[in-house]
Amino acid sequence: MEQKEALAKLAELQKKLYAYQAADSALYLDGTTVAPKDTAEGRGVALGILAGERHKLFSAPEVGRLLDFLWERKDELDQLRCRQVEELRRSYAQLTRIPADEYMEYAVLTNEASDVWHRAKERDDFELFRPVLEKLVAFNVKFAGYYDSTKLPYDALLNEYERGVDMAYLDQFFSTLRGRIVPLLRAVMEKEQPDDSFLRRRYPAESQRKFSDYLMEVLGLDRAHCGIGETEHPYTLEFNNKDVRITTHYHEEDVGNSMYSVIHEGGHAKYELGICDEVQYTCLAGGVSMGVHESQSRFYENLIGRSLPFIRAIFPKMKEFFPEQLSDVTAEQFYRAVNKVQPSLIRTEADELTYCLHVMVRYEIEKQLIGGTLAVADVPAAWNRLYKEYLGIEVPDDRSGCLQDSHWSGGAFGYFPSYALGSAYGAQMLKNMEGEMDVWGPVSRGDLSGVSGWLGEKVHQFGGLLEPADVVKNACGEFDPAVFAEYLEKKYADLYGL
Amino acid sequence: MEQKEALAKLAELQKKLYAYQAADSALYLDGTTVAPKDTAEGRGVALGILAGERHKLFSAPEVGRLLDFLWERKDELDQLRCRQVEELRRSYAQLTRIPADEYMEYAVLTNEASDVWHRAKERDDFELFRPVLEKLVAFNVKFAGYYDSTKLPYDALLNEYERGVDMAYLDQFFSTLRGRIVPLLRAVMEKEQPDDSFLRRRYPAESQRKFSDYLMEVLGLDRAHCGIGETEHPYTLEFNNKDVRITTHYHEEDVGNSMYSVIHEGGHAKYELGICDEVQYTCLAGGVSMGVHESQSRFYENLIGRSLPFIRAIFPKMKEFFPEQLSDVTAEQFYRAVNKVQPSLIRTEADELTYCLHVMVRYEIEKQLIGGTLAVADVPAAWNRLYKEYLGIEVPDDRSGCLQDSHWSGGAFGYFPSYALGSAYGAQMLKNMEGEMDVWGPVSRGDLSGVSGWLGEKVHQFGGLLEPADVVKNACGEFDPAVFAEYLEKKYADLYGL
User: Fold this and answer.
1) What is the structure's pLDDT at B1?
2) 3-state DSSP assignment of residue B341
3) Which of A284, A402, B6, B220 has the fewest beta carbons under 10 Å from its own?
């Protein structure tokens, strides 16, 4: 094989993987947005087969030989190709270490688990979900060994979502945070709460749709390349850097819900749309890690979207969409309302301060589940105990407790910490940004181009060209969770007059 | 290879083909409904690769060996498997007779041609489309030889869309029709025309959307398995018999447009949803031919949807959706308006009587184009001459002339006759149905269950289990185009007092 031929095969392989991903995405997008309700079966058949075809394509021995051939000549490759081969070798090694029958069995299990979890949550019946969760945990422990047998199982899983992150790192990260968030929360809870009742007036979906269009415009999302749909749970889906979709869900009695979904998912979309053309249709396309992705979504959602300058900037226009609902509300009141701190049960609805505590509960439980020190049957009790300990609240039922999130039913263990890491990365990016340019002047005029430009240069453009840790370093410098804690302390001191 | 193993492989092959088709459909559906406007490129990349993968899968020599192995044992197979093998052998032979490089070249060409045609139509510039059309014709002539070298090229192409149909058959069919439609049209045009101006009052899209929901309910389309979307050109797309989508386009100044699109596409959907479970995820899933499909869509659209009993049944409800627009209109007036005969330029907007004349123009031109007796450069002149001859009207420009339809740009030559055949099949089905049951009593009460039940039993359930000609025979008896002519003569004699 000549190098030129090998490189052509490398490009072809990646384009094929892209095509299978696009097919999967289109079916998923359809299934969650417009598909009629009783059509999951046929879609499941197609998705299962396409996953199998993709697996067969990528796990073929000749792919291994191709990657080895190129890796031996890596000094002759440009950086782009070199990174592609490195990434593909990693994925190939991981995929081929999982026996094909276990891989298929697991695919069937996660497909079934999603259904079972939905029903269990609906009926508030953890026992229904328990056997499936046991199997999922067992599979993940086994797979962790395939991923990296030199690591403890949970470390191996964490590494899948945020390369370079492990329990030692996270224990310290979370303990720093907890040590500062818990007393801060206690102080806040002793203060008078702002009135946020006006958020729950009736905001018609039709007006909210128009408001979403406006928010996307403020975020600088090009509608020729970024669509918006409606799903039960909001998400962002990227086909490529010219085609990204976000979704939201309109709650007519809660204007902040979709508003911050759109800004959050919009942040993910900014990232994907900002990735350079050079990596498109390769394994380096797409955001580099979950943590970095969440740093962008939560940057727009919280650091910008829940800031007073931003709210002041958009509030006059917002009043045009909701003239009656907001007639007696000022930008400052709105700002205080959307930053109201309230320990609560549901992570996705949590305020910026308590959010990380929700993540910590899941982290502690996953650590023990995968580590083998917590039986699946004991998850509800552990969950409820930790909510009491971290957030000071009683969990009334498993539906709003350990059954609330879909992640485990999808087989994702080790994913949750990315949410907290992303928040912390973001705060440090903001600090650096403030050191380099005037952030708040333009934002207070509704102009996010400077912010987006900075993030585009430091984060977005690279896609998978850099390692996650290098992207973080590039935008944050040496990562220090204290910066996030300081940000929170300052913000809530101002808000609550501490 | 054991027979059991071979049958398992047969099922697996067909499920894979289904999965690729589902992927293609999901991407197409997305691209034509909700995808942001500048996202075609990445979707094109994915579609091209998936088409290549599907081609590679199906044209592999082991597939040929598998099919041969089973065909040699066809006496031991049940009818279902036997038909599958027969159909797959036919497709396999056809596919493998096309050299892979020509197949891929053609895929690239049709992809490009669609773009060029769009631009040419927009600019009314046939010369822009001409070179592409020349290539498309040349490819189709060559492919016709691959399909069946014993047939004349256009006969081979016709056979692809409606097996068993050829020029000898169609020449007689069209000449019978033309001989009766042209004088009928002449007689009609001498009569006073009904007032149809109220169809062009303003009918807001939002009310039309609700009206569509109502129409789908009347058609008995189960919304848990049948969705509706909005596209520039209406179509029906089936994933399987539990998941079908129709689309429509709302013209606010033309209430009949979307109304009859919904009923037409609804007819296609009824067919797909009525196909038996046994053939799902096999090559026998889906309607058996274009002609039979059109017989169903045009049955609901014209024979039922444009009948007085049906309009009387739905009109009270229709007035609720459009109270102001229809306040001074009776069901009878509406019936006459949507059946107004008016020779016109655009096939898709043609009335039921002149529709077949539009099809005949395309048939004559295709016959000569593929037969080599008409140069592509002479298509506009031939087109305009035939519109004058058959419909008595002048074609002002190619945009509303030979550039109006997308079919040729997609490489479809031999497809158009299916539309006329379907209309004629439908008329004969109605005659038989009337002989066996009370059609119009229930329809006049808005109850289509009897009609749908009859079609379900005689046509829908079989999918590809029977040959197209056998389905036609099953529902029509011996096909006789005179039945369609008689239907038209009777209908328009009543309408126009001939």
Assistant:
1) 74
2) coil
3) B220
Dist CA B298 CA A401 (whole Å): 54
* Intervals of chain A under pLDDT 50: none
Separation in Å, CA A330 to CA A256, A311, A335, A497, B242: 15, 10, 9, 19, 51
Provide CB contacts within 8 A for B179, sequence distance 6+: none
Q: Please list the residues that pair with B248 across neighbouring strands.
A: B230
Nearest CA in chain A to B222: A36
Burial of B449 (0-12, 13-18, 19+ CB in 10 A): exposed
Tens digits of residue pLDDT in A72-85: 999 999 999 999 99
Helix ranges (DSSP H) in B33-125: 40-59, 61-72, 79-97, 100-123
Task: Report d(CA A189, CA A158) in Å as an integer.
Answer: 33
Interchain proximity B43–A49, CB inside 8 Å:
no
CA-based nearest residue to B406, from B232, B276, B256: B232
- C-beta neighbour count of B48 within 10 angstroms: 16
Q: What is the pLDDT at residue B294?
A: 96
Q: Which residue has 């400077």 as its token pair?
A: A450
CA distance B220 to chain A (A): 15
Q: For residues A459 and A452, what is the distance between their CA atoms, to the nearest angstrom?
A: 10
Task: State which amino acid sits at residue A305.
Answer: G
pLDDT 10s digits, B218-270: 999 999 999 999 998 899 999 999 999 999 999 999 999 999 999 999 999 99
Residue A27 DSSP SS3: helix
pLDDT (tens digit per residue) in B3-16: 999 999 999 999 99
Q: What is the pTM of this model?
A: 0.94
> Which parts of chain B have pLDDT scores under 70?
none
Report the distance separating Cα A249 and Cα A258, nearest Å: 6
- Mean model confidence pLDDT for chain B: 96
Instruction: Kindly list the catalytic residues of A.
Output: 265
* Chain A partners within 8 Å of B16 (Cβ): 49, 53
